[in-house]
Amino acid sequence: MDRLLATFITEARDNLEISSTCFLALEQDPTNTATLDTVFRSVHTMKGSSGLFDIIPFTNVMHEAESVLERMRYADLVLTSDHIDTLLDSMDQVSRWLDELESTQTLNHRVDELSNRLCVELRAITGTPNSNHDKTIHVDKIGTLTELTNAPNWVSQLHHVARKTLYKELLISDRHINIITYTPDPQCFLNGEDPIRVVQQCPGLVAFRIQSRDAWPLDKARIDPFNCNLIIQILTTADLAQINQHFRYVDNQIALFQIDRQFLASPEGMFRPTQAYQLFINDVNFSAMNLEWDNFARQVITMANIKANAPYQETICDWLVLLSHEQKPNIRIIKALLSAFNYGFFDLQDETTNSLNLAKHSFQSLPDALVNLTSGYGDDLCERDHDTHANMDYKTDTVTQMDILQADSTPIQKKLRVDLARIDSLMELVGELMVAKNTLPLLAQQADERYGLNDLAKEMNSQFSVINRLSEDLQAAIMQLRMVPLANAFLRLPRLVRGLSRKLNKQVLLKIEGDETEADKNVIEELPNLLIHLVRNSIDHGLELPHVRAAKNKPEQGLIILRAIPRDFQVLIEIVDDGKGIDPEVIKRKAYTKGLIDVKQLETISDQEALQLIFVPGFSTAEQLSDISGRGVGMDVVQNAINQAGGSVHVQSKIDKGTTIRLSLPLSLVLNTNEVLACP
Asked: Which residues contact residue 252 at a Cβ distance below 8 angstroms, ignoring those fewer than 6 apart?
């Protein structure tokens, strides 16, 4: 399997566990913003990372789940238990997809059907019509020559050579220029989004500029590094389909302005009124109006070969030359360029000359951060400093991603994922080291007694003390690498309790204590399945129905406590319920009926000994079989698994008070440091 895909699957499973736990917590406390932020980040991370592998059904489900959470974050939605069911079902299906990806690196043929069904159900939570699922980013305005003053004027700051190159490319492909205004969510950094990376990966990217959304505080200490205060304007040649695909998850943060390529045909430099080109203007304008393109081409090429008095007029000639090579040049842009030679030469009421305000002022614009990401343009797209235009309605401050990152001086906690097999290999080497170093005292004794090397023996014993200390520290450090919190083994239980309680019409409260306790990964690897079985038994056999509990003067809601307690080199795990308890007499009669004990044992066996009979293979007190419990398997499996791990299991129970099952497990796989190999 591809390593990147394997990493994605591992991290996605972690995030799924976190998400499921958070959903259950939100069911109890929908206003907990910390929990909401945590699950939002987990879902958002899964959505974003899945996009690397083009797992569209997976991504769509995560996107819709994120939309639900986003509505909650803005206090626009309160989740119900049914909503939680839908979200949990979605996570379950995604988990099954991960299993498929891990085994086959692909998803089955029903994936689209399942994804669409889940998306419909998730959109029903937010009230979003299904027809809006496949959102598209629509063009807000199609720019024309007389409407160019409405377009972002920073595009004209591109060097005219670069604009001419781009114009030629667009002419061949007959495409438009798309200007995208991207206003990232202020909380995008906390959500795991990188707006700069989104921009850099935009298809057809020519240039982009970054500016502040709001004015920056004068006091730099007041800048919030976690608040995205950016607006990013993007120039791209990508078509609408490509733009929709790329920005599909931030479509509500996007405004699209589409203009014709002719907008690129504007002069370079400052406007200076002059009468020097009036005759030329009259001639080429006459040729253009009469569609005499051969004459037009000869006239503009001749003028272009004459050194102009100003760069502004010279670039106009360059553009006219380029336009003259078109099969059918745009007359309106030609008239605008000709008018730009001498602003006001033509009737100002002419609709084409209204656009000259742009030509007059477009080069007195803001200092912009233009980033050239199109190969072949070199330095043609560059940063330019100009006087601030008086009519600009937004701030000119620019900021880079690096500025944002450097503003936060908080140290970043670095983590490294290590294959468990490598740690196991290192553990084996440490085991051999521990055995080998324990031979040193014996060798020192032999050196003294057999060879009379008293000084050497003393030195060996001295070095043994040093080696022993270092090896024990090394062993402890490596063992720590294998330690994981028991919370990892408890993650599935809240979901289990919720599902079973609803299925059995019981009210159950699960309390988890001490889940931060750590134990060796191998020791607790099988714990989740064992705990699931024990908790299922507690709910099914132990806890009574609400009306039964009420008749016993108990709270209608039953209680299950899952408790982890570190103790010396062990960890104790207790599953405690306040149910009906286990009746020893019932156990004795069932055991006798099944032939597990004889008449003499039936009369002499103690109540505590009788409780231990539940661990005998095939023993069950259930009157009816079910898909939950009562098939005579499980408790013996629990005991065997615990024993194989070097632990033990005990049960205590009182009628109508409840039952406690205590698992005693080794805290870690501690090597026997006292083992000594005999030397010949």
From this structure: none
